[in-house]
Amino acid sequence: MQLTPNFSLEQLIHSETAERERIDNTPAPEIVKNLRLLAQGLEQVRTLVGFPLDISSAYRCTRLNSRVGGAKTSQHTRGQAADFTCAEFGPPLVVIKAIRDSDIEFDQCILEYARWVHISFTAAPRGKVLTIYDSKEGYLDGLWDRGGKQIA
Fold this sequence. Notes:
By secondary structure, this protein is an alpha+beta fold. Helices cover 31% and strands 20% of the residues. The strands form two sheets. A six-stranded mixed β-sheet has the order 3-4-6-5-7-8. β1 and β2 form a beta hairpin. The protein is globular, with a radius of gyration of 15 Å.
């Protein structure tokens, strides 16, 4: 099922872990509604960067989320979040700066371990930008480089 011109339901529920471990990652109808909103937001990001997004994770059922070590309150379990990269545009830090500085209304945009972008979309977006490099240190408010310097 095509949710938007460039994003399908199949793409947003695909998981190699779920396939390998035979976890049914089929979303309930109310989750599909959230996935439509997520796909619409991802379309805006794709338009902004001008290249396809390489989505590594979007919807994760509770069992799959637990298996991959996701937070119990993860927006992935509600179909509101996706993790992606876009190497053609630049490293995740550059992608997040572009999103942050755009007029895209996101809920959260997180630089995760400098390796990917986590973005979420909700009906009441907060526009939060966060950074995480170390799970022990946790999330930092704003955009930070590995050297501990906040990025304007």
